[in-house]
Amino acid sequence: MAAHCQVTGAGPGSGNRVSHSNRKTKRRFNPNIQKKSYFVPSLGRKVTLNVSARGIKVIDARGIDSVISELIAKGVKL
To answer: Which residue ranges are recorded for the region named Disordered (predicted)?
Structure first.
């Protein structure tokens, strides 16, 4: 599964892993991606999205219809 949120666009970040002796090596900070399916009344079917935890909060706050309409306007394949 790709580490990108379809709603917020969040992707992996990078930083340093710091040991006890303060040595630094590169690491990745992956977003908390969940595969979640929603029923969209405007489309009349279920849509499966790869969303982060923040993306789930956005869907809860704004509603699935408005989020899906924005994704369709951007050209995201559902």
So the answer is: 1-27
Residue 68 burial (10 A CB sphere; 0-12, 13-18, 19+):
buried
pTM given for the model: 0.84
CA distances from residue 73 to 24, 45, 48 in whole angstroms, order as listed: 42, 18, 17
Residue ranges and CATH numbers for the domains of the chain are: 13-74 (2.30.170.40)
The C-alpha atoms of residue 44 and residue 26 are separated, in whole angstroms, by: 45
**Any idea what DSSP says for residue 70?**
H
Q: Which tens digits make up the pLDDT trace of 51-65?
A: 999 999 999 999 999
